[in-house]
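Assess this:
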Amino acid sequence: MTGFSPLMSPMILIDLALLTMLILVAVAMLRSRHLFAVVMLSGIYSLLSAAFFVSLDAVDVAFTEAAVGAGISTVLMLAGMLLTVRREKPKTPGRAPVALAAVLAMGAALFYATIDMPAFGDANAPANSYVGQEYVTRAASEIPMPNIVTAVLASYRGFDTMGETMVIFTAGVAVMLLLGIGSVRGGRDVKDAENKEGGE
């Protein structure tokens, strides 16, 4: 039968596998009390997110996620660990009802917003029509770049890209200054609190 696609195609299986791993890594991050393990898991989460973006054909977003999320952010968090303890403080019993209500309300709003989203791959979706279609039609003749994504980022929205780069650079410099990178000691020395059950 022409045009028939199986319900469980390889790409769908890959997407499901990536989403499953993302959920497992997120749960492991929430349950871990070792800050080093949390930092490493956050890097793994960013790499899995980048792989998921690649499967959705968003290569530019995947590259940014891999470079900033798994690369720079992991390095900065490891540098931040030099200024703090290695384990999270024990949790105090009890729950935050206001925070829980806010999370549930936001989650319900996000799920409700997905009702109006266009179908995946819909040619008539706003992202695939109007201005987006103009980019696809005119980029090859107006900008001598073989990749449309590069042409859009470097030319059509070049000022926006430059602004984003400046924001990320400024944020990175601010974080490095707060961490004391470049100073003689790199910040104050801290030690973990003694373990009441016998230490580690």
In short: Confidence is low (pLDDT under 50) at residues 196-200. The chain is about 65% helix and 0% strand. The CA atoms of residues 85 and 192 lie 5 Å apart.
